Amino acid sequence: MKKTVLHILCGALLTIGSVSCSYLKEDIYGSSTRKTYYQTAVQIETGLNGCYLPLRDIFKEVKYFYITEAQTDLMQMGSSGQYEAYCQYSTMNPQFCANLWANLYRGVSRCNTILSTIEASSVDESEKAALRAEAVVLRSLFYYLLTCNFGDVPFYEEEVTDRNNDRIAHLPRMSASETRRTLIQELRKCIIEDRALPFYPTYAPANPKQYRAGAAVGLMVGGKMCLWEGMWSEAIDFFSLLEEMYGPLEKYKLSDVAFRNRYTGESILEMGQTVTDYGYKVYGELASRCEPMRGNFDPDLDDEGDDNSEVTEFDTSTDYYAEVGIPELGSASRTNSPLRPTNHMYKDLMPYNSGDRRRHSCTAAGQVEDGGGWMQCGWFGFNAYDDRSVVKPHWLYFDGMSATSRPYLGDKFWCFNMQYKQDSNNFKIYRYAGAVLNMAEAHLRRGDEDLACSYLNQVRRRAGLPEVKPADFADEEAILKMIQDECARELFGEYNRKHDLVRWGIWWETIQEYGGSLLKTNARPCHRYCPIPQVQVTYSGGALDNNEYNQYGL
What are phi and psi of 15, to 5 degrees? Predict the structure, then answer.
């Protein structure tokens, strides 16, 4: 059998008929066919379940966090060896970009296959509509992430078969704008016009499709694609329906944003850990890159037995992190050289004395009411000399820190009682606060400064910051800058920052001014998007290209 599309576009888990997966070095033949299975809504939903797995495989990788957050003005990686954190990749050595490409197209292919299966099934049309809409939402999400990360990419919506495989495998890049506009119309049709999915917040107990990619996810993705296209009125159409679902932002607690708080009311999309019927769990490792450095270790011996101080052997009888005993983090976790906020983030956007409740969850002055825990200079814990049977937890700065020092990332990202590096938190991908800020931008671009400030103030009020009005700004550009800065503060560490900077057309200038030193040294303007792996360019017969990277010899 022939190689599959772009060498990776196959539905390995959706074994409907047969597919050839050359990257697995074997042919896989499915025993479940359209004639023997996928004839009821429940059976089709099991096929839809397989469409979610590539998303999990992307977001559980801390390297994707590096691409979307460390390659920005907000976070930096101080150590070498984490190539994605500072753009040290190329077409010939794409690092995680190759896995990202593979998983996103694997998701597209699975969605296309299940959509074809839905149409061929004998399921009632009313049930088909909901199943079809969920698959369309998922496929739109995969393509949205493809255009955010790779720019112009091949686009197809048909199931891959032996008849069309060669043609699809040689598809060139299609305009990202054309891709997005096509998907916007599809989402408008199935979500807004047909109302094929129930209109509830994703994780609302009343939602019959709870935990699945439903109407809220479709509206968020559709609205964000409209922003990329400058379709401001259409973006407002999508986000306004989210507003009807979710209501005022103030009803959602800021402290619920912590990744350890799973499936919270404000969330539109979270990436949870996967548990099979056999009890197998899939963990990420993000918290191990976000917690303070673990204390009491031998810096010359890592867990591989070689000389690499990034990963260290710890005394598991203690719970000291940067010289502070933190019982919540426990004694069984391991932390690697952590990401830290840039000077721009912790000095300019969210300084210690700003009064922004998002920065801390606790301070030397006491617990912060409904604090967020974005960054922490210390913690209510113990020092090495405390008798914990007598002494209560008390404020301690982390080793070498003061109130104005560069902090660690805060407990928004920590995993309490983590075992080894197994982060069991959910990763927040889209929240309603992001939709509110997107609404502010869309109204501003349409010329309504009052409404723009009104939506901006929803976020600022919850964070404990003073409200703003158009008269406070010199012009529309100044209001836009405030919205962009508020996106940085509110959505810190939620896989959005690089995509936003690229969409605004300011990524390169921003990282040159505010990025970490390793990022400035290694990044080139072409790194605004990931490279298509050269092996994929070859398999396409030259239909694909990396012309931007070629200009820089990468």
Answer: -85, 70
Which CATH number fits the domain 432-510, given the four candidates 3.30.450.20, 1.25.40.900, 2.40.128.100, 3.30.70.940? 1.25.40.900
Q: In a 3-state reduction of DSSP, which class is residue 387?
A: coil
Identify whether the C-beta of residue 104 lies closer than 8 Å to the C-beta of residue 533. no
SS3 label, residue 205? coil
* 3-class SS of residue 439: helix
Mean pLDDT of 386-393: 94
The pLDDT of residue 38: 75
Q: Are the C-beta atoms of 549 and 103 separated by less than 8 Å? A: no
Q: What is the pTM of this model?
A: 0.90
Contact 116, 81 (CB under 8 A): no
The domain 1-174+511-554 is placed in CATH, from the list 1.25.40, 1.10.357, 1.10.3470, 3.90.105, at 1.25.40
Say how far apart CA 457 and CA 227 lie, in whole Å: 20
293 has a pLDDT exceeding 60: yes
Local confidence band at 9 (pLDDT 50, 70, 90 cut-offs):
very low
